[in-house]
Amino acid sequence: MSLTCPDRMLWIHGIPGAGKTVLASFAIEQMKLYCEGTTNQKYAYYYCHYSNGQDESLPLLSWVVSQVCRQLSWAPSQLKQLHDRGCEPTLSELQYVLELALVRLESLFIVVDAVDESTPRDELVRLLATMTLDSRFQKVRFLATSRKYWDIERFFSGISISISMKNRYVDADIKRHIRSRLNSSFRLQRWRDSFQEIEDALVVKANGMFRWVDCQLHSIERLGDKTKLLSVLQDLPPDLSETYVRIFDAIPDADRQFVSRVLLWIYGDSRAPWPARRAINAKLLLEAVTFDLYGSVPAGGNGVFDWDYLQDLCGCLVTVKSQGRLTDAAACSITLAHYTVWEFLTSSYILSTRVSQFAVSTQAVYRDFATSVLRQALSADPEGEGTDWRRDRDAYCLVLGCALKSDRYLQTPEDLELYFRFLDPCNPHYRRFRAVQSRALHSPSDRAYRFSILKIPTEFRAPEGAEERNHMAEVLLNARLLNDWMPGEHAAYTTHLPPVGRLPQHEVEELGNQRVAGIFLGPDEKAPEQEFRFDGKVWDIKAPRRGSRPA
Hints:
InterPro entries: NPHP3-like_N, P-loop_NTPase. Pfam families: NPHP3_N. It comes from Lasiosphaeria miniovina. Keywords: Repeat. By secondary structure, the chain is of the alpha/beta class. It is 44% helix and 11% strand. The chain contains 22 helices and 11 strands. It has helices spanning 20-35, 57-72, 77-85, 91-102, 122-133, 150-156, 168-184, 195-206, 210-221, 229-234, 240-249, 256-271, 282-294, 307-314, 339-345, 362-378, 393-401, 413-422, 433-442, 471-483, 491-494, 505-511; strands spanning 9-13, 41-47, 107-113, 140-146, 161-164, 280-281, 318-322, 332-336, 459-461, 515-522, 530-537. The strands form 3 sheets. A 5-stranded parallel beta sheet has the order 2-3-4-1-5, with helices on both faces. The protein has a 3-stranded antiparallel beta sheet with strand order 6-8-7. A 3-stranded antiparallel beta sheet has the order 9-10-11. Strand 3, helix 5 and strand 4 (140-146) form a beta-alpha-beta unit. The N and C termini lie far apart (60 Å).
């Protein structure tokens, strides 16, 4: 869209699996080429994603401002003031910063993919519509993709050029996509004599859905009996929902619990409070599921379940990416293949199908995932040497366990009881914390100070003059540091003090007046890792910050 075009937004809408994200990615690459070498034309892009579970309006605008300022190698003083203030900026403040940046530009192109996946999406839709109409942003051109929901259409119709993904050009692209898959897949080569029949059948039934096509091709790849191809092509599922019914129905009864746990862990990891969205390591995933189903993992990490076995069972439900050989689970990461997989599992529709046993509640999954993480953290080998939370199951569960602090994860008194056992330094697993904390401090790529694990002490000792430690007070300190619990004069937080162990709230408040002592690990001005000793009341102790000095 050029600056001479009166419409400042291009809205591309389509059904799930129609290839909107692929098209948005292509548009971004074209924008990069168009703006390359220019000083006054810049671009920015943002992918909304269901796994973020958040209103994407503020993250979008923050990311746009960040990208534009980096491309300009310049930032207004107002942006530094917002940063120094130490709290999250508002939408209007970020809009003002973007307005200042636009003075230096002739045009700015912004791509926003999957607007409908913002949770909620009202604020994001309003933001895009408002900025499209606001004269302060007349140099900005938007490309937004989404499903055609009525609330999005209500805001975007009349202010945008609307393009449906259901058109002859998409159908032609689907045909090319099918031909590419047929020619590139080793497992499809045995159907070479039937390529034309496969292509014709899929093109007719695809209805603009690339995702649907991929699932059908995957099913044909695994078709063992050549005589059944014709019947398969004559009985293709009409939509994605029926496609998923058939995929799950084909999973053997003996393997269904395994597949359910795999999908739960993939989804749980995608929604976990990591510093950045990422995929779970396949070897770690296999070990975690093995622990869930059998209560332990064989020595040497050789799990009960085989990596090829997982890929064959889950098929087109997951996407595998590799940093080495695809046959090596340790070098691979895995995500859900498409957000419609989880939509299907949590839908009311699945309850009326023959695969209803796979139905899940997102709320229940949060709790199930969290309790699994905490149990596996409690079983961590105290003498283990693994510290890479991306690949080592013990380290992963120790790091993530410190971040599972909201009632989204800890939904019952039993959950809290398990959480406090995890925070108890008297339990053997606690000895593993020091090595993992040390790695977080020494590895810049880990963005150490965004990890909750660095908020708690690496070890506890008896306070000066005391004969023994009060381990319940130590548990409370860890819980307070991770959850920002405060009593008394901070009345707004008083009601959020849960029972610790079996202690009622008023006794928890009194427990916070007990003395505890020990050591934090943290950086100081001269070294990435230093010991910071503490000895004082639970309510008075704070974790060290960057620039602190050892006591």
